[in-house]
Amino acid sequence: MEKIGVNAVVNPRMTTASAILRFIRRGKIISLTLLKEGEAEVIELIVNPHSKIINKPLKKANLPQNSIIGAIVRKDRVIIPHGNDIIQPEDKIIIFALSSDIKKIEKIFDGGEK
């Protein structure tokens, strides 16, 4: 495929599923990517100012065991977080999680508005 200038394969079914999930999920989701046929997800979201996680160290955030915050984007800065980092309102967060844990993650970051 590289001979014809193609360097990536797009799975239309997974792309469509990701787009649909982005609209039905809670909160301010910027992007969502499904991994391994939907078994896991990578979510980029904007943290709600009323979220339970605001102003708490990540180590006290009570995230599901099989999830991890891969990055925090604050203004123009990218932070690779550790347990003592604190989430601020309107931070952009990139989370890797099993699909079975998404509802709990949504509640933590959304602030319970829905």
TrEMBL record:
Carries keyword Transport?
yes
Q: Which SUPFAM superfamilies match?
A: TrkA C-terminal domain-like
Tell me if Transport is a UniProt keyword of this record.
yes
Q: What Pfam family is a match for this entry?
A: TrkA_C
Q: Which UniProt keywords apply?
A: Ion transport, Transport
GO MF annotation list: monoatomic cation transmembrane transporter activity
Tell me the protein's name. Answer: RCK C-terminal domain-containing protein
A single BP term in Gene Ontology: potassium ion transport
- Residues annotated as domain RCK C-terminal: 30-111
